[in-house]
TrEMBL record:
This is NAD(+)--protein-arginine ADP-ribosyltransferase. It comes from the Eukaryota. It comes from Didymodactylos carnosus. SUPFAM superfamilies: ADP-ribosylation (SSF56399). Gene3D superfamilies: Toxin ADP-ribosyltransferase, Chain A, domain 1.
Length: 174
């Protein structure tokens, strides 16, 4: 799934880059003074770039995505195993920037299963757990932050939601 997302992004970026370079070449051309309505030319390029973006939302490599990938706004969960040192930087009000794609689920019990699956109940000499189970809850408020990929996921029962890179979050509590 991640490879599909990365290829989609690369293809979209390449097409937008091509259109942008064409526009810049046109604007830098010594014949630019002969363009009678430069604002209409710019509007045409903007329309074309927008249509490229919309096209990639609808299909990829022959696969119709229209209605399969939907923007998502609501609460999602992610289960993980962390150490107490991993947890130290997080506190109430801390702002985070997610730098990579992140798979989450709409079903809290699925996240709990992930957190429990790999835990090893080892303790330190101070009788503290070395690995901790954590459930992160993400409240998605911007519909461009995440995609509901449940309809195309290999594990549709997990109700997966893909959070995009460079998504910002605030930690309300730990």
């Amino acid at each position: 799934m991640l490879s599909i997302c990365l290829r989609l992004r690369l293809l979209k970026d390449r097409r937008i880059q091509f259109v942008s370079q064409t526009l810049l070449a046109t604007l830098d051309d010594k014949n630019i003074d002969e363009v009678s309505e430069p604002d209409k030319l710019l509007q045409t390029y903007i329309y074309y770039i927008k249509s490229i973006i919309d096209e990639f939302k609808q299909s990829y490599d022959g696969l119709r995505l229209d209605g399969l990938l939907e923007n998502f706004k609501s609460k999602v969960y992610r289960g993980m195993i962390i150490t107490s040192d991993d947890l130290k930087p997080y506190g109430k009000g801390i702002k985070l920037l997610n730098k990579a794609f992140m798979l989450t689920t709409k079903d809290r019990s699925v996240a709990e299963d992930f957190a429990e699956r790999d835990v090893i109940h080892r303790k330190s000499v101070k009788d503290e757990h070395i690995k901790l189970q954590a459930i992160c809850t993400y409240e998605i408020v911007n519909d461009r932050t995440a995609l509901d990929i449940g309809k195309i996921s290999e594990y549709s029962n997990e109700q997966e939601v893909l959070i995009g890179p460079y998504s910002a979050f605030i930690v309300p509590e730990v």
